[in-house]
Amino acid sequence: MARALYIHWPFCLKKCPYCDFNSHVRAQVDMAQWQAALLADMRHEARLAGGEPLESVFFGGGTPSLMPPALVAALLAEAERLWGFAPDVEITLEANPSSVEAGNFAALAQVGINRVSLGLQALDDATLHFLGRLHDVKEGLAALDLAQRHFARVSFDLIYARPGQTAEMWEAELRRALAFGTGHLSLYQLTIEPNTRFATDVRQGAFEPLADDPAADIFALTGELTEAAGLPAYEISNHARPGEESRHNLAYWRYRDYAGIGPGAHGRRAGLATQRHRKPENFLQAVARNGHGLAEERPLATREQATEALLMALRLREGVDLQALTERFGIARGELIEHERLAFLESLGLAWRQGDRIGVTAQGRPVLDAALGELVPATLAIA
Q1: Which of 98, 164, 224, 277 is within CB 3.0–4.6 Å of 282 for a Cys-Cys bond?
Q2: pTM here?
Q3: For the chain, what is the radius of gyration of the CA atoms?
Q4: In the prediction, which pLDDT does 379 show?
């Protein structure tokens, strides 16, 4: 049963050049129409994935802080009616730090948002301009201060390994970020995703991405500084004080069922992979036609589920319990992991094993994709 709900708001004021998320710019958005459509989509999903109170709700995007607080309130009220909320439910909203959106923080807190994830992305104006952001540092820090006054828990994002960035430059920026005192930081290496403006810029020679070796040095420095500050990496890009981890994202990484509604939203429901129509207009048409925005419901073979569970869990510092996976999916432990390769990675200091639990070390995280290729048998995903 789903214990987490993801609600996707697809609209932004501007498409950032590095972004490959399902986000769209529209001159006008009919809020009443979107409220009706999202509520219908939610009700459909609750009929199929209901049962137990939600432990987390996450408004992602796009830019959910563009949503009127009254719309957020209506969606939360319906989610609570359909599922119920756990006593300590975590309700997160992603926000951009413009003054207009920050002006809604008090109202959003009043309607139930208790955690905000703020897209600062950088702490210098030249980089913000390069990243295509609409705010400057002064505006971003004012929004952060406002968020810390209104929400019980605050996280913010920064992007590192930017073109021309040195370890010294990033150390100064990260130390400044850590001094703001939030309990959670999401720190992402700049990656050039296909079909983004940055991909076009790189292809045309407008700039060169930071080379792998200095990027790896900055990644290692990030782990050292956050660990020393009491916000260790609990996932490859996420750092938190103990107890401040994103419960919603942990539901993904621990491979629990979750409901996803809104344009392009993915979900996992009792062995099914669900996805909504991506384009906002197509989503609205689907809801009008069918009463929901589903584009696909695909059964996942047991071995495919086990593969997904491994690939997600090995991103976590806590690793994965092989015995628990064996019991959950009925797959022998010897088929879940390449044990000879695990021993080899252990000898290199890139992986660890403690009883039934295995994981990737801090030294192994910069080469996580390669380590996963070694650990997870290619035959596992074959039904």
Answers
A1: 277
A2: 0.95
A3: 21
A4: 66
